[in-house]
Each structure stands twice: as structure tokens, then as C-alpha cells.
Amino acid sequence: DVLITTLKEERGKYYILDEIRRRVFTVTISDLRFDDAGKYWCGVTKTGKDLYTEVKLEVRKDRCCDTVSKIQSIEEGSVSISCPYDSEYVNNLKYICRGNRPSTCLQQAVITSDTKQNGQFRLTDDRKSSIFTVTISSLTLRDSGSYLCSVQRKVGLDVFSAVELEVKVASWDIQ
After folding, report:
1. How far apart are CA 149 and CA 81, in angstroms?
2. Which residue from 28, 72, 91, 95 puts its CA 20 to 30 A from 129's CA?
3. Under DSSP, is residue 135 helix (H, G, I), strand (E, B) or coil?
4. What is the pLDDT of residues 29-75, one digit of tens each?
């Protein structure tokens, strides 16, 4: 049951990219569903016996984190979000995104450790303590919501921690 070949690069939810120089091809499956999980075979046709590699695809629910840190601040103020990580990831890319969908977090990152500053967002990395901190300044009520701190891994899923930010209206006592 051939799902896609390099002769036809796109077929429904499947897309294949053949990097001939690198001798690597990549298949992307979009709009993943739980029933897409299972065993797949990547193959290369050649004279004689074809080459096959088995790939097992696991599909998980796209949500994050058993615990969520809750933080509060006031409008026009600032807040610092601390994101601890394992020391083995000290040289890896760190980033934060809005929302709670790990699968799209890196593409929608508001700031990364490569950028350091992006508008009201600033990222600093204390490599000795293995904590990166994202400071959000000039807060507005619209900044309230879910955020994911993440460290990019070279193999496997990135590491995530969740934060819920509540920005409150500043109440100034006038006497």
C-alpha cells in the first residue's frame, strides 16, 4: 500500500521531500489523527533487492504539562517567567510561545535564545543555574493566558513547562 512516492511529491495529507545530494528523503504527514499511528515502511527502489526501513509512528494528544505555574502581574508592569531545564540542554535552543500546543510552539515562538529581545519580550539564560528567564514588559490585559517554556532537543520531543499568566488592572489608591 504505497502512500506517496518522489514521483508525486504531494498526495492528500502526505508530502515527500527528496534531498538527493544528502541522500535523504523526508515524509511529512499533516493533520495527524490517532488512527495514523502504527508501522510505516520507508523504501528505496533499486536494481536487485529494494531497501526498506521500518518506522513506528506514535501519536499523542497535543497538550502539555501535568503542572502549570500560575503568575500574576498588573497592567503596564512587567513579569519574569523562570524556565528551569536540565543541565544537559545548556547549549540547546530555548524558546517560549503563547498557548499550550507543543507541536506548533517553536514556529510560533515569541522569542528564542537566538533572538534575546523581541519587542516587549527579553530572554536571558543563566547557564550555570540551568534556568532561562523571559521578561515581559509593558504588560497589557491581552498578555494574559497560557505560555510554554521549551528547550529544543536534537532527538525526540522538545521539553516543555507550562505557565498561566494573569494580568490584572492596576488599581491605584487615590486619597
Report:
1. 9
2. 72
3. strand
4. 888 888 999 999 999 988 999 899 999 998 877 667 778 999 999 99
Q: Which long-range contacts (CB under 8 A, 24 or more apart) does 35-43 make?
A: 40/3
What digits encode the pLDDT tens for the residues 17-33? Answer: 998 999 889 998 888 88
Count other Cβ atoms within 10 Å, centred on residue 171.
Answer: 8
Q: What is the pTM of this model?
A: 0.66
Contact residues for 24 (Cβ-Cβ < 8 A; gap 6+): none
47 vs 133: CA distance, rounded Å: 55
Please write the tens of the pLDDT for every residue from 67-102. Answer: 899 999 999 999 999 999 999 999 999 999 999 888
Cα(116)–Cα(135) distance, rounded to whole angstroms?
Answer: 10
